[in-house]
Amino acid sequence: MKKVLLALSLIFPLTALAQQETKITFNQSKKANLAVQEIKALSGNEITSNTTTETNRLNKTQEDVYNFVLLGKSYYDLQSNASVGRRIIVHDDGSISTVWTTSPNTSTGWPQRGTGYNYFGGSWGAETNTRVENARTGWPSINIMSDGSVTTIAHRATDGGFIKANNGSQGGTNWTSSNPLLTVSNGVPIWNRSGSNGDTIHLICNFYSNSDDGIDEYFIDGIRNPTTYSRSLDGGNTWDIKHSLLPGYDTSRYLRGSGDAYAIDVQGNTVAIVIGGIGNDLSLWKSMDYGNTWTKTVCDSFRYAPYDLNVAIASADAGFSNDGSIDVVIDNNGEVHVVCGAVMVYDATGIDDQSYNIPQTYELFYWSETNTEIKSIGKPIDMDNQIDPATNLAWYFPDETTVGLDATGNPQGGAAFAGRYGGLSIPTHPSITVDANNNIYVTYDCPVELLYHDFGANLRDIHIVYSQNGGADWSDIQNLTQARKSEVAYGSMARRADNFIHIIFQLDDIPGTHLQNNGGTGLHPNNENRIYYAAVPVQDVLDNKLGQHLLSTEEMDSRSAELFVVSQNQPNPFSGSSEVLIYNSAASVLTLTITDMFGKVVRTEDLGKNIAGNHVITLDANGLTSGMYFYTIASKDHQVTRKMQVR
Q1: DSSP string across 334-350
Q2: What is the torsion angle, in degrees rounded to the nearest 10, for the CA atoms of residue 390, residue 392, residue 393 and residue 399?
């Protein structure tokens, strides 16, 4: 297996990163020498350029190392309790909007917490750590409205309800915030997920309670803190359905809701909602008429549902359950695909104190409307090709990686550190997307065997698997981020892949989160986290070129200079200038040729040698008459042609 480091991204100009933008015009040739800057790969040491030492550590040459794009930073590091949700949109014109929970400081309670936002419309905005709303919020979802503007919806954790923020136009920077939406007397609805079609927004959420804070449980039809569905037909200004229970979501199978243990996808008039949670069924509700009527399907049932937490279950009788980390997507044919983390649940005490035992498991579950038998599709990577004799598993993770915190806020069993997240499957936080050919891709974050932090816990990377036959068969696992000395988690992909898989994620230098893993240990300080974007060529994934980056000394695969991707120029049609994204799998000399509709060459340009990775080329229409043209970007052995229109 190749050990190809993939820290891929679009190398666009970011003021904060001091990168140089490559401008290659029809009138002037420049060599495409983009500054290559690694992410912060060694704990406490910012790497600002590719050094020989750092490159050798990764067994790579300079031309094989790629960048992530830094979107923003945050001192608030809990992006979700379980499911991450859809936090990136690729617009029809190729521009991109991203959101995350951010905080610019560590002040008590993170009073400036809110929605971080960054936008690509030819280049990314400068990194940011400020919120778009006028109030403290968290857990943003993002939707595109019929007028092209972007709307975010995030919750108010203390009082409940949601704040809607709108930027007025695609890529706009002036945000307006709504009054609190979908508030409930004596209840705290939070943790929304939403999807939209035009101005119709479909939203699901859960209710929060905490006796220490005097926040009582909220009941609807006997279900405590339930998951509810709401709908707006006018972009979130009014809601014709508010906090409704979906049909069949009742006490026959559900006695309680679970925070973030749900996911939603919207395509045209079809809405797919999946609800789960530890000890709950994993069920799909599908509507094909904008949420007016629903059909329920149980994807995977929990053998003890409805589980009321006061029934003793012996460990020998433990039952499989989803871990609450869930994602769902509707493919190009209207079929629904679901993925989740898996756990085994038992409770030897039978006491309703939510202290049931949840032994971590090492797989993701997949289900679809066609492939209705649950499949195991994602696990850790066996880095050393050895079996752990204690567990008979192909990988070994110490207690510091796998255990949760006890009632005192310290790791169970006296372990020094617990690197875990809300979703208690070892592989967790799945995200699912499909491309134009209906290939399915699933990412998840997972500890990497033999890669330890100073405290002994394994560091995580984002892994990826794919299916090319509708989910019937799945590929081997590849390591998508390969950050090595950093912790990568909370990956969220755009719901559709084009030539690229578009993903954002959070990265810092310590396993786990400050909010979940500091406890009484003090071992996870409130350090600054980075939010990154990466564009991963789908062909690299399908060709299994990302690899697993095993720790053996395996010789690098020598790749020919091949041009994998040339994007459509943006904007198109255009006058003045337009930009093209190219992706090289290896360093190569490129040329640019412009022809008119009759095949006559009107311009040629030597673009020089371009290093591996992504580059932006600016097309200058100066001197070209209005009309249709073709531009061809070629290496020695490969070429790609696209059509452009000059106004």
Answers
A1: S-EEEEEEEEEEBBSS-
A2: -20
Q: What is the pTM of this model?
A: 0.78
CB contact at 8 A, 61 and 555: no
Element (H, E) at 402: helix 399-402
The residues with which 538 forms a beta bridge, in sequence order, are none
Total residue count of the chain as it appears in this document: 647
DSSP, residue by residue, 538-577: HHHHHTT-S----SS-PPPP-----EEEEPPPBSSSBSSE
Which residues have CB under 8 Å from 5's CB, separation 6+? 58, 59, 60, 64, 65, 66, 482, 549
Q: Which parts of 585-638 are beta strand (E)?
A: 588-596, 601-610, 613-620, 627-634
Strand 458-467 relative to strand 478-479, pairing:
antiparallel
Query: pLDDT tens-digit profile of 78-100?
Result: 999 999 999 999 999 899 999 99
Domains of the chain in start order, with CATH, are 15-67+558-646 (2.60.40.2550), 69-542 (2.120.10.10)
Is 164 exposed, middle or buried, given 0-12, 13-18 or 19+ CB atoms closer than 10 A?
buried
Cα 181 to Cα 184: distance, rounded to the nearest angstrom: 9
Residue 445 backbone class (left: φ over 0; alpha: ψ -120 to 50; beta: rest): beta
Using CB atoms within 10 Å of the CB of residue 525, give its burial: 0 to 12 exposed, 13 to 18 middle, 19+ buried.
Answer: exposed
**Given this model, what pLDDT does residue 120 score?**
93
Residues 6+ away with beta carbon under 8 Å from 537 = 8, 499, 500, 501, 564, 565, 583, 585
CB 36 within 8 A of CB 611: yes
